[in-house]
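Thread: heme C complex, take 2
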Amino acid sequence: MRWPQRPKPRAGIALSTILLGISACERAGPSPPAGLLASPAAQQAGAALFAAHCAICHGANGEGRGRRREGLNPPPADLTLPPWSEIAEAGGTFRVIRNGVARTAMPAWPVLNDEQIWDLIAYLSSRKS
Ligand code: HEC
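Output below.
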């Protein structure tokens, strides 16, 4: 009887992809297109994307209390807090959304293009209380 293939080779590929990714980007991540984060149109588009893709875990307002948070360890981050709410940290936030967080429920978002990720960050950083 043949056992199903072990996941090892795939883990190896994932690791080298991550290492390539790390060496390819600056630690601070990419810079947002000029003026985009302050654009009300981008902030609105980001709010709609957030409701569609992120609210289920992070909550309607991003405070970390979405319907699917139960049992997640670590729990979804509170995105109303720094550094995720800070424009100055936008490059790092971009990288997290693009790549996800390994070994957590936070997925990578290959379905979102760069502009959509910046729109999300425009929304997150527009909500200072
Ligand atoms: C399936 C649940 C889930 C979905 C959907 C999800 N997240 Fe997350 N997210 C998490 C979890 C869990 C963490 C905490 C990871 C950690 O503690 O390192 C997290 C963390 C984050 C962080 C902070 C990273 C960190 O190191 O803590 C950001 C920023 C973020 N998510 C943005 C988003 C955005 C934007 C979306 C929608 C495009 C999204 N997330 C969708 C579960 C989710």
